[in-house]
């Protein structure tokens, strides 16, 4: 399994990789959206034997990163429990906040 490169060398590496797409999320770009990438994602996850090389990386924004990570691990990882949307709400449909959404707003008369 490849090891992550840490320290200042790792920061430089990350910056260089992000610069390859002009700092934009590749997944959003494919969908016609322009979103700033905040993550350098490993296409084949290091945890699954992927290599830490440029060819195995792509630049993603946080929401895309969460989505592809969940896909990569077949939703087996506890990603749903800690997924947070752009509005600060949990992304899991099972989360009480989201379940309550379908009901009447708090304080309303039923
Ligand atoms: Zn994206």
From TrEMBL:
CDD domains: HNHc (cd00085)
Database matches in Gene3D superfamilies: 1.10.30.50
Positions of region (Disordered): 75-110
One Gene Ontology MF term: zinc ion binding
Residue ranges of every copy of the HNH nuclease domain listed in the record: 12-66
Superkingdom, taxonomy of origin: Bacteria
TM segment ranges: none
Protein's recorded name: HNH endonuclease
Originating organism: Sphingomonas montanisoli
Organism taxonomic ancestry: Bacteria, Pseudomonadati, Pseudomonadota, Alphaproteobacteria, Sphingomonadales
